[in-house]
Design goal:
With 86 residues, this protein is α+β, with helices and mostly antiparallel strands. The protein has one domain: Pdz3 Domain (Roll), CATH 2.30.42.10. The chain has 4 helices and 5 strands. The strands form 2 sheets. A 3-stranded antiparallel β-sheet has the order 1-2-3, with no helix packed on it. Strands 4-5 form a two-stranded antiparallel sheet. The longest helix is centred in the C-terminal third of the chain and has 9 residues. The protein is globular and about 45 Å long.
Protein backbone atom coordinates (compact mmCIF):
# COMPACT_ATOMS: atom_id res chain seq x y z
CA UNK A 1 0.00 0.00 0.00
CA UNK A 2 2.84 2.39 0.80
CA UNK A 3 4.27 1.94 -2.70
CA UNK A 4 0.90 2.78 -4.25
CA UNK A 5 0.47 5.83 -2.02
CA UNK A 6 3.91 7.05 -3.13
CA UNK A 7 2.99 6.55 -6.80
CA UNK A 8 5.60 3.81 -7.24
CA UNK A 9 5.12 0.64 -9.23
CA UNK A 10 4.03 -2.42 -7.28
CA UNK A 11 6.22 -5.52 -7.55
CA UNK A 12 4.51 -8.90 -7.61
CA UNK A 13 5.99 -12.28 -6.82
CA UNK A 14 6.46 -14.47 -9.89
CA UNK A 15 7.56 -18.07 -9.91
CA UNK A 16 6.74 -19.25 -13.43
CA UNK A 17 4.43 -22.20 -12.98
CA UNK A 18 0.91 -23.07 -13.91
CA UNK A 19 -0.54 -24.56 -10.72
CA UNK A 20 -3.33 -27.13 -10.44
CA UNK A 21 -5.52 -28.01 -7.51
CA UNK A 22 -5.20 -31.46 -6.01
CA UNK A 23 -7.75 -34.11 -6.85
CA UNK A 24 -10.44 -35.03 -4.35
CA UNK A 25 -8.69 -38.39 -3.89
CA UNK A 26 -5.39 -36.68 -2.97
CA UNK A 27 -7.14 -34.40 -0.47
CA UNK A 28 -8.94 -37.37 1.11
CA UNK A 29 -5.53 -39.06 1.50
CA UNK A 30 -4.45 -36.05 3.57
CA UNK A 31 -2.38 -34.17 1.00
CA UNK A 32 -2.50 -30.39 0.76
CA UNK A 33 -0.91 -27.78 -1.49
CA UNK A 34 -0.90 -27.14 -5.20
CA UNK A 35 0.46 -29.38 -7.94
CA UNK A 36 2.85 -27.93 -10.53
CA UNK A 37 1.03 -28.48 -13.82
CA UNK A 38 3.56 -26.71 -16.06
CA UNK A 39 6.86 -24.86 -15.61
CA UNK A 40 7.69 -21.90 -17.86
CA UNK A 41 11.23 -22.13 -19.27
CA UNK A 42 13.74 -19.58 -17.98
CA UNK A 43 11.69 -18.55 -14.93
CA UNK A 44 12.66 -18.77 -11.25
CA UNK A 45 10.76 -22.07 -11.00
CA UNK A 46 12.73 -23.52 -13.90
CA UNK A 47 16.07 -22.32 -12.47
CA UNK A 48 15.14 -23.72 -9.04
CA UNK A 49 14.41 -27.11 -10.62
CA UNK A 50 10.65 -27.38 -10.16
CA UNK A 51 9.12 -29.99 -12.47
CA UNK A 52 5.64 -30.75 -13.69
CA UNK A 53 3.96 -32.94 -11.07
CA UNK A 54 5.83 -31.48 -8.07
CA UNK A 55 3.72 -30.60 -5.05
CA UNK A 56 4.16 -27.22 -3.32
CA UNK A 57 2.89 -27.44 0.27
CA UNK A 58 4.28 -24.29 1.95
CA UNK A 59 5.25 -20.71 1.17
CA UNK A 60 7.45 -19.05 3.81
CA UNK A 61 6.73 -22.00 6.11
CA UNK A 62 2.97 -21.31 5.92
CA UNK A 63 0.93 -24.30 4.67
CA UNK A 64 -1.07 -23.80 1.50
CA UNK A 65 -4.13 -25.79 0.52
CA UNK A 66 -4.92 -24.99 -3.12
CA UNK A 67 -3.86 -22.92 -6.13
CA UNK A 68 -5.74 -19.82 -4.94
CA UNK A 69 -3.96 -19.98 -1.59
CA UNK A 70 -0.63 -20.35 -3.44
CA UNK A 71 -1.34 -17.30 -5.65
CA UNK A 72 -2.22 -15.24 -2.58
CA UNK A 73 0.94 -16.22 -0.67
CA UNK A 74 3.24 -15.83 -3.67
CA UNK A 75 1.75 -12.44 -4.50
CA UNK A 76 2.58 -11.22 -1.01
CA UNK A 77 6.30 -12.03 -1.43
CA UNK A 78 8.54 -9.04 -2.07
CA UNK A 79 11.26 -10.93 -3.95
CA UNK A 80 12.42 -14.45 -4.79
CA UNK A 81 14.82 -14.22 -1.85
CA UNK A 82 12.08 -13.35 0.66
CA UNK A 83 9.77 -16.08 -0.52
CA UNK A 84 10.62 -19.66 0.27
CA UNK A 85 8.56 -22.53 -1.11
CA UNK A 86 8.63 -26.26 -0.47
Amino acid sequence: MDRLKEGREVEYGYLGIQPANLTTEEILRGLHGTRVHRVVAGTPADRFGLKSGDLITKVNEVPIYDATDWFWRLGSCQSNRSCGWR
